[in-house]
Amino acid sequence: MSILISILIALIAFLHLYFLYFEMFAWTTKGPKIFRGFPKDLFPKTKSMAANQGLYNGFLAAGLIWTFFISDLDWKFNISVFFLSCVAIAGIYGGMTVSKKITYVQAAPALLTLVLLIVMKLM
Questions:
Q1: What is the pLDDT of residues 82-98, one digit of tens each?
Q2: b/e per residue 5-31 (b: at least 16 CB within 10 A)
Q3: How many domains are contained in the chain?
Q4: What is the DSSP letter of 36?
Q5: Whole-model pTM?
Q6: What is the residue range of 114's domain?
């Protein structure tokens, strides 16, 4: 895998580790500052739901981190494509249902990395 793709995967994994932290541990404190359009009383009521979502983001990060420990290049490619696709789909869905910003923060980096990964594989 090229260094650029590895860096992008690491950044995306780091983002999802941050999402894990935010949704599991800082939802009620940072949430109202980030999602200003939501009523403030919503955050305590949705704390367990956000924590569950944060756990899923942790699984996405774990999958992306796992790619750094796979020595077989075909498996590394397949696992990278799978987890980047999961991130992209989650980002597109979040952009459509919660905030368009999610499309740029989550889906766009994953899609860019997927394209680069596939182009590199075809070369």
A1: 999 999 999 999 999 98
A2: beebbeebbebbbebbebbbeebeeeb
A3: 1
A4: T
A5: 0.91
A6: 3-122
